[in-house]
Sequence to fold (107 residues):
Amino acid sequence: MDIHAYPTDAQTPVDRAEATRIAADHLPPIPDTDRHIVEFTDGFVVLAVRPLHAPSDRPLPVGGSVHVIDKATGAVSYWPTYPCGVIAAQYATARVVVDDEWPGEET
Fold:
């Protein structure tokens, strides 16, 4: 399976502090959520989570709330809302293809 990922200005290899910076700089904010970062062997899963005090009348968006930051390249990929363990297992057997630019960017 190929995973398409998008380039960042990451300093590699990516550690937790760098993953936090990449998420803040490159991922769109989702209102009323916090980011939760979970490390696994090949990267970091970045999840949008709703804090306990946040209004619950606005559902989390479908799509765009789960990402992976690759440790080796710093590239970001989009993922379905799978558990972190499932993402890590699929990521371990995949080939990461880093595109030249982010979707919607014009050269």
User: Anything to note?
Assistant: The helical segments are 16-26, 84-92. The longest strand covers residues 34-40.
